[in-house]
Amino acid sequence: MKRLCLVILALSLLMLGCGGEKQKASDKLQVAASFYPMAEFARNVGGDKAEVFALVPDGAEAHDWEPSPADLSRLGRAQVFVYNGIVEPWAKQALNALSERKILAVQTGLGLYERGGEVVEEEHHEHGHNCSHGKQDPHVWISPKKAMVQVERITATLCEADEKNAKYYQDNSAKYVEQIRALDIQLTNLAKNAPRKVFVTAHAAFGHLADDYGLKQMAVNGLSPHAEPTPADLQRLIKVVKEENVRNVFFETLTDPKLAQLVADETGAQVAVLDPLEGLSAEGRKKNLDYLQIMQQNIHNLQIALYAK
Ligand SMILES: [Zn+2]
After folding, report:
1. Which one is the CATH code of 179-307: 3.40.190.10, 3.40.50.1980, 3.40.50.300, 3.30.1330.50?
2. 252 CA distance to ligand 1 centroid (A)?
3. How far is the CA of 21 from the centre of ligand 1 (A)?
4. What is the distance in A from the centroid of ligand 1 to the CA of 22?
5. Among 54, 157, 53, 55, which Cα is nearest to 103's?
6. CA angle 71, 75, 81 (to 5 degrees)
């Protein structure tokens, strides 16, 4: 209900704003993206011809976020809306409420959420969303294979919304997809030759990456960025690490390093970071890192974990 009220409120704001909004501040294609990786993909395709903004601000948790009336009114001024699907349960309702605005929306993850491999020990992913319940897993952007599909879909939508610049978007897209394909090739080789195929993460955000490259993710219950793990959660993690002879345990960028250290001390494993790229971490912002660079770090850290003696 709260959401509906927000939508109605935003609509009335829009009505008020209608008269003065005619002349746009920029003649660039206005692209709204839901959260970080969607904005990043859209920026790489849109280049100088598009103005891309993310609705979910840097550093905010994408899954828990809900649009304010001001956000909805901002979305209402966009020509294109890029979203992943499932992570943004508010998207469909917002689009319905803004239907008069004729925003060209693209759900980039459509049809990609189904996990092929077995889903193990992920039922308790306390992440504020249903990402790992059943086999519908929204974290598709973390697999380069699926990220490439998402970029292609964004490209098609930008071309449709702004036909005169279609060639420009297609060229940008081709270059960007090539860079993602380089990650894909790296991951394929790394996984194929890895002596260990299992990796342990706190957050079950790497399932598509595991599936697509023949690896196995074991995610730890209750160790989400904002859920305090119980002693039982920690015991379970320690057991898994010992049983699987895992040498590295991955924690999310935002997880308290004290816990990671505790698990490492108990098991002799090393602690490393995998970034689920749901938002740009403080470090990412400070160093001005992008999707490609952070994925490169992820691949580097995965390599250490899978090849550790
Ligand atoms: Zn997630």
Report:
1. 3.40.50.1980
2. 11
3. 36
4. 38
5. 157
6. 135
Distance from residue 128's CA to the centre of ligand 1 (Å): 8
**DSSP secondary structure letter of residue 230:** P
d(CA 31, CA 114): 27
**199 Cα: distance to centroid of ligand 1 (angstroms):** 17
CA of 156 to the centre of ligand 1 (A): 26
Ligand 1 centre to CA of 142 (Å) is 11
The Cα–Cα gap between 113 and 140 comes to 7
pTM: 0.84
The mean pLDDT values, 10 residues at a time, for the chain of 309 residues are: 53 48 72 97 98 91 90 97 96 94 97 74 42 72 98 98 98 98 98 91 86 88 56 82 84 66 83 87 87 96 91
> How far, in Å, from the CA of 43 to the mean position of ligand 1?
22
pLDDT in tens, 203-214: 788 999 999 999
> pLDDT of 235-283, one tens digit each?
887 888 888 888 888 877 655 667 767 777 888 888 888 898 988 878 8
Interval between CA 173 and ligand 1 midpoint (Å)? 26
